[in-house]
Specification:
Blueprint lengths: L4 E2 L30 H7 L12 E6 L13 H7 L4 E6 L4 H4 L6 H7 L6 H9 L1 E2 L1 H15 L4 E6 L11 H13 L21 E7 L4 H12 L7 E5 L12 H15 L3 E5 L3 H10 L4 E3 L12 E3 L13 E2 L4 E2 L9 E3 L7 E3 L7
Parallel strand pairs: 2-3, 5-6, 5-8, 6-7, 8-9
Antiparallel strand pairs: 1-4, 9-10, 11-12, 13-14
Helix pairs in contact: 5-10, 6-9, 9-10
Main location: Golgi
Family: Belongs to the glycosyltransferase 37 family.
Function: May be involved in cell wall biosynthesis.
Length: 356
């Protein structure tokens, strides 16, 4: 944490003290732990009639969580959980959309976030302050390559297909999206040299990808041909690590720095299902163009669509009606929680009535 983030609260830490009584147990908590709330529900060991509850419970809200774990999002269960002094949670999900479906949370969440699609934006700016090392990566790169351009375009590329790449179908999709939506100018294939336009503008394209091939291809296109608009296009990619290396500190610093740099662009193109892109759009308050999933290694048509909000997608929401105790489409209950553009069963927050 300290390698990536500064403490967000003055004169106090967001980390537990080293002598916190149950810290050493954290790594052992999983779905089958006796202290796991979902496991207790499954085994029938939860007693709602007790005035006092256990000193702590473990909440397993990871993407592989079971039906009993998902009851965390039910009002009846929140009535019990609020009596427990400490809740230890493990999650890799952005589950905020489902909190907005808990009736007892509704008023407090509305007071905190009157604009529903800015939840992550506000929380991100409030909590996620880059460490000095990461801030150095961000500021040096921005000042050297992006600051002087008239416009900045971010393209975040995450490829889930196996193989090293770059893949031509991915390149075709990126170009189709950026050219069709006028994010990048078309090239002039008839002339090698064009007269500079008055008030000639410059666009900086920031590409983030594990592979260097996509940015090199875009750079080559705009080096070999002038643009029909007369704009000058420069293409930059801070790193190309080839594969994800989660346990390496410098790798993680670069990833965090690149998410932040993407958030500083004016227009953003992101890959579907990618939390890397979600963080960038949320921090920047940007509604990105989302690249559709290619099928059979063929560029989809259309290649992308505009996002309905800047919020990240909750990839593994419960699809359950707590009162009726049956499955339900949780994306149709309230106007400000809708299914995601890039994952049909996922949920995301929108600002309501425009999407009814």
């Amino acid at each position: 944490m300290a390698d990536l983030f500064c403490e967000p609260f003055p004169e106090i830490s967001w980390l537990l003290p080293m002598d916190f009584p149950i810290t050493k147990q954290f790594k052992r908590f999983d779905q089958n732990s006796p202290q796991c709330y979902g496991n207790m529900l499954k085994n029938g060991t939860v007693d709602y009639s007790k005035k006092s509850q256990p000193p702590f419970l473990y909440l397993h809200l990871v993407h592989d969580y079971g039906d009993h774990d998902k009851l965390f999002f039910c009002d009846q269960d929140q009535t019990l959980l609020k009596k427990v002094p400490w809740l230890i949670m493990k999650t890799d999900n952005y589950f905020v959309p489902s909190l907005f479906l808990i009736p007892s949370f509704e008023q407090e969440l509305t007071n905190l976030f009157p604009e529903k699609e800015f939840v992550f934006h506000h929380l991100g700016w409030y909590l996620f302050h880059p460490s000095n090392q990461v801030w150095g990566l961000i500021t040096r790169y921005y000042q050297a390559y992006l600051a002087k351009s008239d416009e900045r375009i971010g393209i975040q590329i995450r490829v889930f297909d196996t193989g090293t790449g770059p893949f031509q179908y991915v390149m075709d999709q990126i170009l189709a999206c950026t050219l069709n939506e006028d994010l990048l100018p078309k090239i002039n294939t008839r002339e090698s040299v064009t007269t500079p336009f008055k008030n000639q503008k410059s666009k900086a394209v920031l590409v983030t990808s594990l592979n260097a091939g996509y940015s090199e291809n875009i750079r080559t296109i705009y080096w070999e041909h002038p643009t029909v608009t007369g704009e000058m296009i420069s293409v930059y990619q801070p790193s190309h690590e080839e594969y994800q290396q989660t346990e390496k500190k410098m790798h993680n610093r670069k990833a965090w720095a690149e998410m932040y740099l993407l958030s500083l662009t004016d227009t953003l193109v992101t890959s579907l299902w990618s939390t890397f892109g979600y963080v960038a759009q949320g921090l920047g308050g940007l509604r990105p163009w989302i690249l559709y999933k290619p099928e059979n290694r063929t560029a989809p048509n259309p290649p992308c669509r505009a996002a309905m909000s800047i919020e990240p997608c909750f990839h593994a929401p419960p699809l359950y009606d707590c009162k009726a105790k049956k499955g339900i489409d949780t994306g149709s209950l309230v106007p400000h929680v809708r299914h995601c553009e890039d994952m049909s069963w996922g949920l995301k927050l929108v600002d309501g009535l425009d999407y009814l």
